[in-house]
Amino acid sequence: THSQSASEDRLRRRARQYIDNRQMDAAHQTLEALLEQVPGDAHARMELARVMLVRGQLRESNRQLLRIVRTLPNDAPLLAQLAQRLYLNGETLAARACLDHLEHAPDPPAEILAAQANLRWMLGEIAKAKALMDRAVAMGAEGYEENYLHALLCQFTGDIDGADRVLTELLRRWPAYAAAAVVLANLRKQTEQTQHLDLLREQSQRFPA
Predict the structure, then answer these.
(1) Does residue 51 contact residue 87 with C-beta atoms inside 8 Å?
(2) What mean pLDDT comes out for the span 30-34?
(3) What phi and psi, each to the nearest 5 degrees, are found at residue 136?
């Protein structure tokens, strides 16, 4: 009804005001009151989990996040954020469930693909992360963090030339990115050593046994 909707909006505004003013106890109570009216509101439950975490209630925060996982919404940005929060809170199985659900999202934007790639990378799923990052780059992801991750994924999947190209372009655009410079220097050093060993191997084969 109209009165219910007005009440929910009022509680949302009040919760946001309390959070902005760092009044976490009041924010907690307001968000719980809101969720009594709309228990399926994933955004409100995410906010409650965040408030609980700020208050040092890690277990209770995780419990709220896991409640969202039971009925995952078809909301790509929220799913990416939820997966990241779950991973950082140590709930890796639930984070994977979110990412698996997110893969069914129709035409996700580049930033969502990049976020998925980053989480798959952190979960050690290198091949999946690389495929997602390739799609993100093809769709226009071009920040230095996205490029750096793309380079690392190229390196870890054996595409050394690709990693070199991405890092070279990254440093052309952001010359102060020290981490990229270090990776590129190590990459080229390893490549030179490999080429040197290949040359020695080839020369040794020319001598009779």
Answers:
(1) no
(2) 96
(3) -60, -45
